[in-house]
Amino acid sequence: GTVTRAGTAKVVQEFRTFRCEQCQSKFELRGDPYSGYEFEVPNQCQSGAKSKSWNAQAKRARTTKCNSRNFEPLPASEFSMNDFQEIRVQDQMKALGPGVVPQSIAVVLFGDLIGRIQ
Q1: pLDDT tens, residue order, the chain (118 aa)
Q2: E strands in 7-103
Q3: Taking a C-beta distance cutoff of 8 angstroms, is the pair 10, 84 a contact?
């Protein structure tokens, strides 16, 4: 194919660490490349951390799982960031028959491929 457009190099945060505000457990989420590296935070804590509280009625300790829905994003580290470049590639005109409309796709380049295509 033929490159019809090459964007500038950009930086994206590939993963992010969050902390549960109740049990303080940390978990890492990966951004979804198909949604522009958005982070889908869970509806409740996934840690499985258990806490004990006194059940006065039963006169014994009761174990409960953390069900918090509040999470704090922690500062990004340099290791969670990655450079990328988006290009557009189109079918070669000479490979197509007359009257055929060329198709194109978006391609995302990472690592040492960035900047190779201007």
Answers
A1: 889 999 999 888 888 999 999 888 898 888 887 777 888 888 888 876 666 666 677 777 666 778 889 999 999 888 888 898 999 999 887 777 788 888 899 998 988 999 888 7
A2: 10-13, 15-20, 26-30, 50-55, 60-65, 71-73, 81-90
A3: yes
What is the sign of the dihedral through the CA atoms of 31, 33, 37 and 43?
negative
Question: What pTM did the predictor assign?
Answer: 0.60
* Cα separations in angstroms, 31 against 35, 39, 109: 8, 5, 16
Would you tell me how many other CB atoms lie within 10 Å of the CB of residue 48?
9
